[in-house]
Write a structure and sequence with these properties.
Layout: H1 2-14, H2 19-27, H3 46-56, H4 61-79, H5 85-98, E1 102-105, E2 123-127, E3 130-140, E4 148-155, E5 162-168, E6 174-177, E7 191-200, E8 207-209, H6 219-250, H7 264-292, H8 298-323, H9 325-328, H10 334-342, H11 351-364
Parallel strand pairs: 1-4, 2-4
Antiparallel strand pairs: 2-3, 3-7, 4-5, 5-8, 6-7
Length: 366
């Protein structure tokens, strides 16, 4: 993790994807961590993946988000019966042997996130005897480093089917527009990807269904996503806490003659931060245990994501407020941790979705 951490500031400044980080992750076998053992992968489950994501996020959360999506989707591919075996084998062996990356491409300029419903404007249709893909996806994490995109698309019928289409991102007709220039998580390369008459083999139309059939599908995928996002931003909060501890010990004001860490004010502050992080650890552990026992609902997982990430944000904000100008100096990493942790709020599910669902479930119970 030290190498990744040492590179983080430069990649945050440039906004480029850290390809050397990804190469290191491939050498360590982490890009194939959840690929089925049948294809030479690690075959690991959520219990193994969560601490990896939480730890690496303390070094560079942008690289870690790309890894988290790789783990998430290969775990799904390994168990999803809808994937044709030859396609499953192709993407799985490429991850093991070459570190080839993939990610889901779902969000669109007009639709927004499909988690809130609606039919995507990205369409797959028959043209001159071939399947072709046309459309546009925004916030495509990993974009220029990805081998494939798992594209959320619809057929062009009056009663369209929707679902997953595998698109090679080096195919003719794929164009990446460099639009990602955000406050935080700058090195995720979450650019816009355009598809213009991209020809696909029929086997790459992985899973297309009537829209209503997706309502209760992808249960495990959604659970994994919520908990991985929570673990990642909790890792950012841990990195901020660790820097703050070092700063408070090193800072010795002339009029005080001893470190800031000796003052009750800062001891209370650190206690408040520790309370946030302790709560997060307990919630993530409980969510993982209940997931393994088949008792963690989507509502619970989404609420865990919301609470853990809000705690992470509040813990970093407390440190920033307490130490003043040094917290916002670009020579110190705390301002980068603040910018990164704020991005937790943009990930599905957003606060209103998680809270309204939890409230509705409780109020519907007798």
């Amino acid at each position: 993790m030290e190498k990744i951490s040492n590179r983080a500031a430069a990649y945050d400044q440039s906004g480029e994807i850290a390809l050397d980080n990804l190469a290191d992750l491939h050498k360590a076998g982490l890009l194939a961590l959840t690929v089925s053992r049948r294809y030479g992968g690690g075959g690991k489950g959520l219990r193994d993946v969560l601490p990896v994501i939480g730890t690496l996020a303390q070094g560079d959360p942008s690289t870690t988000l790309i890894l988290a999506m790789q783990c998430l989707h290969h775990a799904s591919i390994a168990s999803d019966p809808h994937w044709p075996e030859d396609v499953r084998r192709m993407v799985s062996e490429a991850a093991v042997q070459e570190g080839a990356l993939l990610n889901a491409l779902r969000v669109e300029p007009d639709l927004g996130t499909p988690s809130r419903g609606g039919i995507p404007a990205t369409r797959v249709s028959r043209k001159d005897g071939q399947w072709v893909l046309n459309g546009c996806k925004i916030y495509s994490t990993g974009s220029t480093a990805l081998r494939w995109g798992i594209v959320w698309a619809a057929t062009d019928k009056d009663a369209p089917r929707t679902g997953h289409v595998l698109a090679p991102l080096d195919a003719p007709g794929v164009r990446i527009e460099r639009t990602w220039d955000q406050l935080g998580m700058r090195a995720t390369g979450s650019h816009t990807i355009h598809f213009e008459n991209v020809v696909l083999p029929e086997s790459f139309l992985v899973d297309l269904r009537h829209p209503g059939d997706w309502r209760d599908a992808a249960h495990d995928l959604t659970l994994w996503h919520a908990l991985l996002i929570a673990a990642l931003y909790n890792g950012v909060a841990h990195a901020a806490r660790d820097w703050l501890v070092t700063f408070l010990h090193a800072r010795v004001p002339a009029n005080l003659g001893k470190p800031l860490a000796s003052l009750p004010r800062f001891q209370i502050l650190m206690g408040e931060i520790e309370a946030f992080l302790l709560t997060n650890r307990a919630m993530l552990a409980d969510g993982l245990t209940r997931y393994e026992q088949g008792e963690c609902s989507l509502t619970d997982a989404n609420l865990i994501k919301h609470v853990v990430t809000e705690n992470a944000i509040h813990s970093v904000e407390k440190g920033v407020a307490a130490i003043g100008n040094p917290a916002l100096s670009r020579s110190n990493p705390l301002e980068r941790h603040l910018r990164n942790v704020l991005c937790a709020r943009i990930h599905t599910p957003q606060a209103d979705t998680a809270l309204s669902a939890a409230g509705r479930v409780r109020l519907e119970q007798p």
